[in-house]
Amino acid sequence: MKPAIVLLPGLNRDRDMIAAIETITGKKPLTLWQTETEIPADVGLVIVPGGFSFGDYLRCGAIGARMPVMRAVAEAAARGVRVLGVCNGFQLLIEAGLLPGALMRNASLNFVCRSVRLQIVNADTAFTRNYRPGQIIDCPVAHHDGNYFADAETLARLEGDDRIVFRYAEGTNPNGSTADIAGIVNARGNVLGMMPHPENLVEPAHGGTDGRALFESALDLVEA
Ligand SMILES: NC(=O)CC[C@H](N)C(=O)O
């Protein structure tokens, strides 16, 4: 499964993501600049990384979501290609209309940068099948707009269709997200958005490897 990483001005976690993929696969991933209009046919996983695309002006992800590469990401998702959005990447996928809801200012109104505990609510997705259902993992967060909101009907649909993939566990909700939601998938199950940063926990030097199974799942590296 060949991965590619989207690059937009102002993103800064692209380098962490490239390093994580290189650590896990031994190969540098393809990168796709914002002007690209097509995702190459052999790419099976597109990653939209975190950071501050276009300085978070207007709303986090609102400007980046209108760039040509994001239209290409939407077309690839419609073909069934897997798409992973982390932090600003999650914000971009919501702004691009690939995932429902909104990411509002953290309830504390502060930028939050710390480790949280995440519960794997759905271990039956392409991104989480190398975790155990209910497993609690460590994962860092670093954002000011991570407060997930969705209207009651959308929330009921997300819950009913098992589309809530991660929840903040054990009172570690860092941003006031509704129902402790930290990550969701689309109806088809091939687009995942999450606020925490699994790419920052993939080798012992990071202080843990709890994020690794997500990439191994999404890249079909280890069969669950
Ligand atoms: N680390 C990130 O991707 C941050 C996302 C966004 N800029 C925010 O602060 O909410």
TrEMBL record:
GO terms for cellular component: cytoplasm. It is found in: Cytoplasm. Its EC number is 6.3.5.3, 3.5.1.2. It catalyses: L-glutamine + H2O = L-glutamate + NH4(+); N(2)-formyl-N(1)-(5-phospho-beta-D-ribosyl)glycinamide + L-glutamine + ATP + H2O = 2-formamido-N(1)-(5-O-phospho-beta-D-ribosyl)acetamidine + L-glutamate + ADP + phosphate + H(+). GO terms for molecular function: ATP binding; glutaminase activity; phosphoribosylformylglycinamidine synthase activity. The active site is at C87, H197, E199. One of its GO terms (biological process) is 'de novo' IMP biosynthetic process. Keywords: ATP-binding, Cytoplasm, Glutamine amidotransferase, Hydrolase, Ligase, Nucleotide-binding, Purine biosynthesis. It comes from Roseitalea porphyridii. Part of the FGAM synthase complex composed of 1 PurL, 1 PurQ and 2 PurS subunits. CDD domains: GATase1_FGAR_AT. Pfam families: GATase_5 (PF13507). InterPro entries: Class_I_gatase-like (IPR029062), PRibForGlyAmidine_synth_PurQ (IPR010075). Pathway: Purine metabolism; IMP biosynthesis via de novo pathway; 5-amino-1-(5-phospho-D-ribosyl)imidazole from N(2)-formyl-N(1)-(5-phospho-D-ribosyl)glycinamide: step 1/2. This is Phosphoribosylformylglycinamidine synthase subunit PurQ. SMART domains: GATase_5. HAMAP family: PurQ (MF_00421). Part of the phosphoribosylformylglycinamidine synthase complex involved in the purines biosynthetic pathway. Catalyzes the ATP-dependent conversion of formylglycinamide ribonucleotide (FGAR) and glutamine to yield formylglycinamidine ribonucleotide (FGAM) and glutamate. The FGAM synthase complex is composed of three subunits. PurQ produces an ammonia molecule by converting glutamine to glutamate. PurL transfers the ammonia molecule to FGAR to form FGAM in an ATP-dependent manner.
